[in-house]
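Let's sit down with a protein and look at its sequence and fold side by side. Please make up or recall a protein chain and show it to me in full. Label the sequence line and the structure token line clearly, so we can match residues to local backbone shapes. Go ahead whenever you are ready, and we will take it from there.
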Amino acid sequence: MKFQLRTLMLTILVGSALLLTGCHQNTTEKLPPVKGRNLTAMVISDDHVIAPSLHDNGSAFDSYAGNDAGADLKYSATIFKAFIAKAIATKPDVVIVSGDITNNGEKASHEYVARQLQRLTQHRIHVYVIPGNHDLNNPLTRGFKGKKQHEVEAIDAAQFKQIYAKAGYNEAVAHDSNSLSYLVKPSKKTWFLMLNSAIYKSNYQQGSSTVGGGLPDGTLDWVAKIGREAKKQHAILIPVLHHNTMNHTMINQGYTIGYADQVRDVFSKANVKLTLSGHIHAQSIKHKTVNGKELTDIASGALILGEHYYGTLTLDQQTGKAQYHATSLNVSAYIQQHQGVKAAKAYQKYDHDVLYASGYNAALSSLYEDRDETQYSTKKMKTLATGMGEANIAMFRGTPVKQTPAVLAWEQLPDSVRLKEFILKTKNLHGNLQWSGAVR
């Protein structure tokens, strides 16, 4: 998710056969299945990594990174390495990356991420990835040197599967012949259904990546077959996809998967109770009753942005109960450890400012456009823009905005004022960081 629709969020609200008989053949050593009652997974999404080799921190890159809708692209590789270090220290059974792995699908960035993920497999951690809308056939791949940017190599679906062979595909016990979707069984009783919801075949013709998502013809039939098998085996089945399975925000076009009702119906009939997604960049947990049963979709907050959340999902494989909580990654501590106090303080300031500025600038632009009608003073518009900057941070954080004077100033405005509805909604952000419930 990037550029037009992410900016719009800031402006308006700111077929195939089931192959269960064997794994993909490979010469690499397979990790043993998870044993014991509990299985723990660390979950991230939207890390938007750009390989350090693709930029020199020059003026072209600084300008580009500073206009990335609040994402901390300048530190993307460092943030990802901080997560890898945290995962190695935490030692979960599984690490899941639910798409938008790279900035704009650069081959060098994918290869960089794959090398980092191999550090996890070397520590006996199962790693599973799926692509997001930025990752494949992206015509906007760029490198940066000095004052100029230049086009760099992208990747296609076959290359994605090759690059991430050790991050899920070699471990798959079933592959969807229609897409990059696959099934993994880290343990006998827990299965992750890694679904490719990204649409990318027409990206080059349209000149940009496709923000919306869907599942190809035949894939839902494949999902249904796996669901029936999971029921027979009394296994926990958790789909993971980039696009949301239900609406999380006022702006949902391009974020919620296409034909969502049909997707949720198939999931429900497969006894799925929890899905993991991303894409909207905001940490959000939503629920919907489908066929008389509750389905929960946990959208992971973008690793590249705001609190730099990672989720921890703990499954009791005996009872079928699960717990989830989102935790802020302490990137500052990682930078201080490796680069010193001065570098950590510089990161903290930039990290806050780039997200705050995206909301502040979007609001100020909108208020100036309406100034002939509203007659607001420059001072008042700056106050309101400050409130928007604060609310924008809260929205991505998934927790209520503080009732500062700048935020309260919005409540005095007529309901017709653009952005007011968004501000009011950020006052009621609850239940997005923790969840518990049945997954079987």
Summary: Residues 320 and 338 are 41 Å apart (CA to CA). The longest strand covers residues 309-316.
